[in-house]
Specification:
Four copies of one chain form a homotetramer. With 178 residues, the first copy, chain A, is of the alpha+beta class. Chain A is built from six helices and seven strands. Chain A has helices at 4-8, 14-21, 72-84, 147-150, 153-156, 163-173; strands spanning 26-36, 42-51, 57-60, 62-65, 100-104, 120-128, 141-145. In chain A, strands 1, 2, 3, 4, 5, 6 and 7 form a seven-stranded mixed β-sheet that branches. The first copy, chain A, starts with a helix and ends in a 5-residue tail after the last helix.
C-alpha cells in the first residue's frame, strides 16, 4: 500500500502518521479494477506492479488511506485516479458495503494479511472501469489478466502481504473463481 | 409483472404457463433502474407506469420471468431492454447475488408481497443505467424521481403488490433511505 | 440434489414434475452447514455423502426444491432437517439475500454447474448449525472437515455437478479460502 | 458512542486519542442486537438508552472503537459483552463484510450521520443474541422492541447523530422494514 500522495496532501505530517500507526488501526480502501462485458461478467482484472520499500517488486491492487473528513466514495475515486489515471472512468457499486474487509497486521500470523508498518483495515471493492487506464508514477506497470490468469499459481505468487488471497476473494465475489 | 414478451417468445404456451403457475414457484428477476453520479451515489430512480389487468394503473419496476435454459444475467438484460429500450446501457452488478429476494404469493398476508396469479420468487437488483431510456409498449410512462421523491408517501401509494416496500429496500441498499 | 421427500409431500406428481422440468427453471435452496466458534469464524464444514442416480457416490451439500406456496426460510429449514435431522439447530442468516445464486443447466458447458435432469436455480446460504447432526436416509454419511480439508484437491474431486466450486465460494464468503 | 472501557484498557492515552481524533478517521464497530425466531426472522430489536455528554438521554446501538492490533470480530464481541453483559451469547455473521458502513462527521451536513468529537467510520452488523442481556454500567436501560415499534416515528425520534437511519437500514437488511 502506498501513501506517497496522501502525505503530499499534507493532512498529516510524516511524524504524526508514524505515531498514529503505532497506536490505532488505520483505515484504508482497496479496489480491484476489472473490465466487464455487457452482462456485467468480469472479463479481465487490472493488476499493478509496484516497487516495495525493500527493493523487490510485487503485484498490487489499488489502495490507499481514507483521509480525515474524507468520504469513502471520494477516497476510492481519489486512489483509483491516482493509480489508474484521470480517464479510467471507475464505476463504484451502488452499495457502500464492501464485499470484504481486509485486516493487515504487523504480525503476519494474525490474519494472514500482513503490513510491516501498521495495523490497517481495508474496505475492499471490485470496481469496473470503462476508460483508458495508465499506471501512475507510483506504479511500474498495469496488466490486464483474465480471471483464470489472475488466479493462477504463477501470478498469485507475485503478490505480497497476503493480497493473493484478496484477488481470489474478489473473483469469488464475481462468481469467477475457476 | 408483465410476461407479454415472454409468451411471444413461445417457450411455454399460455396453457402450460397457467398450469405451472398453480404448482410451482415461478422464478423472476426484478431490476430497479437508477441514475448514479460519478462516485456511484443514486441520484434518481426510474419508475414505470403500467396498466394492470384490472384496468387500474400503477408504478412498477422492471420485472419478468427467467426462461428455461436462460441465464439470470441474460434475463435481466432482456427485461431491461424490453422495458427501457435498446440503448439504456444497463450496468449489471459484478456479483450475481441479489440485494434481496422478493416472495410474491397469491395470498397477500403471507409475505406482504402479492401476485394474484402465482407464487413468484424474484431476485432483485439495483441497476445503474447510463443511456437513454424509452418506455416500451408494455409501459405507459417512465419517470425519474429522486430517492426522496420515490420514497415519499404519495409515490409509494401508487405501487401495487407490495412493491412500495421493494423501492424502500432498494434505497436502503444504496444508502439513500431518507 | 434430491427430491425424494419433496415428491412424498405430494404437491406435484412425478409426471408433472418431469413436465415442468422440461419447460421452466426450477427453484432450489442450498445450504452449506458449518460449525462456527464464539466469534463466528467457520471451524468446520458439514459435507454429505450421497448415492447418485448413476450408482456413483459423491459429496453434496444440503439442497432441495422450494415448494408451491412455501417460503424460502421454511424450505431451508425443511431441507436442513431432512438432511441433518431434527435437532441440528440451524441458524439462518438475518438477511434472505443468498451469498450466491447457482445456475445448474442440463448442458455442463453453460455455467460450469450441471444437473442432467433440469435447469435449476439455487439460492445458496452458509448456515451455522449448533446441534447434533445425523445424516438422514437419503445420505450415506455426514463428515465435518476443516475449511482447509474441505477445499483440498482430494475432497473437491469428490463433488459432482460443479459443487466443488460452490464449496470454495462458500469458504470465500466466510473469509476462509486458504 | 462510548469509549470509557477502551480508555481504561490503556492502549491510547486520553491526550493521544484527542490528538488522533483531529487528524484521522477513527475505526468503530456497531452492532444492532436482535432476537430471531427459529427461521432466522427478526422478532425484536435491542435498543440501549444512554446518557450523552450534554446531559440528554438517547437511544443507541452497541458501538465502540477497534483497538490497535485488535481483530474486528474480537472488537465486536468485546463491545457486545461490554454493553449487554457476559451471557448475551451473540451470534456474529459468517461473513465479516458489514451490511453497511456508517460515516460519522463533526459536520452533520456531510452524511447525515454526526459525531461532534470526531470523524468515525463504523462497520455495522445485525447480531442475533440468544442469551440474557443486562445493560452495563454505561447504559441506563435496554429495551426490546418489535421491528414495527423500533421504526415508529416516536422511537426513531429518540436517537441522536442520525442513528435512527441506521436502525431503518438494519431492518431493511433483515427484510423487516414495515
Amino acid at each position: 500500500m502506498s501513501d506517497t500522495l496522501d502525505l503530499a496532501a499534507g493532512w498529516l505530517s510524516t511524524d504524526d502518521l508514524l505515531a498514529a500507526r503505532g497506536t490505532l488501526p488505520i483505515l484504508y480502501v482497496e479496489a480491484i479494477p476489472v473490465r466487464v462485458d455487457a452482462a456485467g461478467r468480469i472479463t479481465a482484472v487490472g493488476l499493478l506492479l509496484r516497487a516495495r520499500p525493500d527493493g523487490t517488486v510485487s503485484r498490487a491492487v489499488v489502495a490507499g488511506r481514507v483521509l480525515y473528513r474524507e468520504r469513502i466514495r471520494d477516497a476510492l475515486i481519489r486512489h483509483l485516479e491516482k493509480d489508474l489515471g484521470a480517464v479510467a472512468l471507475p464505476r463504484l457499486p451502488v452499495s457502500i458495503a464492501p464485499f470484504t474487509v481486509v485486516e493487515y497486521f504487523p504480525d503476519p500470523s494474525v490474519s494472514g494479511f500482513h503490513d510491516p508498518r501498521q495495523h490497517a483495515v481495508a474496505l475492499a471493492y471490485v470496481v469496473p472501469v470503462d476508460g483508458d487506464c495508465v499506471p501512475s508514477q507510483s506504479a511500474i506497470d498495469l496488466a490486464w489478466l483474465t480471471p483464470q490468469e489472475a488466479t493462477s499459481e504463477a501470478v498469485l505468487a507475485e503478490f505480497s502481504g497476503g493480497q493473493d488471497r484478496l484477488i481470489r476473494l474478489a473473483m469469488a465475489h464475481g462468481g469467477q473463481l475457476p
